[in-house]
Amino acid sequence: MSRTVRKVVLAYSGGLDTSVILRWLIETHGCEVVAWCADLGQGEELEPLREKSLASGASAFVLDDLRETFVRDFVFPALRAGAVYEGEYLLGTSLARPCIIEGMMAAVKAAGADAIAHGATGKGNDQVRFELGALHFDPQVQIIAPWREWDLKSRTDCIAYAKQHGIPVTATVEKPYSMDRNLFHCSFEGGILEDPWAEPPRDMFLLSRDPADAPDAARFVEITFEAGNPVAVDGEALGPVALLERLNAVAGEHGVGRVDVVEDRFVGMKSRGVYETPGGTLLHKAHRAVESLTLDREVMRIRDALVPEYAALVYRGFWFSPEREMLQAMIDQTQRRVSGTARLKLYKGNVTLVGRRSEASLYREDYVTFEKDTVYDQADATGFIRLNALRLRLRAMRDGTSS
């Protein structure tokens, strides 16, 4: 049974949904609303939010700088896991949500609030991610999800509500797609993108150039890892935020990191999302290259088999689950010797691996060479092949298929 709501902490972005929700909470629940925002690298989008939220009726505006936490504690662990959802999506939004709810629940405690509210719709994944995380931190917290309660049925209705109440928003009926930006990526969905046949508008992208407009000269970049974490770009040691910002700029300049996917939402429907993950695309490629030198074959095979499970857990909102923590502990153990440097070539939207090296490398040129060597007896392969073929031979003899 719901209790009387006295003070609500709203996950506030200043976009269409949360701008309308702020006013709706005050009018519907008669409660105090703290507009809380996480700085995950949205840049200039954050500048007008304080004035805008207070003008809309918020009792306070709180901006928490979580950029370092986001990259170090959420992006990098997923990078160590090689996490990719359904083969293409690097989970930029999925990783941001647990970081946001962790900071938000700390704000709830600091403000003495008794409820939280969010702008996730009843059709999407974010409602699950937010609420699973909130209940992890406080099993008794009240959660208000306006999209599951109010009589506004669409973003077009929200635009009309905002106009009626004098709430300034950037979305329009003609251009109603939704955008979510952080240091790791920028996502676009909804509106004109709901037709999976329609090409995304050329002027929609924020973090990357159109590959056709990228420089005509290729750019080489070197990324260095220690224990599975990126620590330097082109030989310069950088902290997590600065490193990702540097790679975003380099990759974005060359049109790298755009994907257009139809993905399976946790609630059961397919949806179309367009993502820009410039720096993350380089990190994923470079990390895999260093792993190819330093990880044992069987360790990599078993880890790779678990990547879809790990990615699905993150996508579905189970970051704080014991099963994700279990997988993370196992994966991080595999990363202890994943140290080295990968060299990438960026050109017109493409990224190509052109070199890798590591002091912890398992690669031995004296063993793999096609030239004369003194360390490998090729005659040993005869017994190896016959032993591996034994079960196949026995089956053939049993079934009478041998000739």
Automatic annotation (TrEMBL):
Q: Does the keyword Chloroplast apply?
A: no
What GO biological process terms does the UniProt entry carry, in alphabetical order? argininosuccinate metabolic process; L-arginine biosynthetic process; urea cycle
Q: In what residue span(s) does the Arginosuccinate synthase C-terminal domain sit?
A: 177-393
**InterPro entries reported for this sequence:** Arginosuc_syn_C (IPR048268), Arginosuc_syn_N (IPR048267), Arginosuc_synth (IPR001518), Arginosuc_synth_CS (IPR018223), Arginosuc_synth_type_1_subfam (IPR023434), AS_cat/multimer_dom_body (IPR024074), Rossmann-like_a/b/a_fold (IPR014729)
Q: What class of enzyme is it?
A: ligase
Give all residue intervals belonging to the Arginosuccinate synthase-like N-terminal domain: 7-168
Q: Which family does it belong to?
A: Belongs to the argininosuccinate synthase family. Type 1 subfamily.
- What name appears for this protein in its UniProt entry? Argininosuccinate synthase
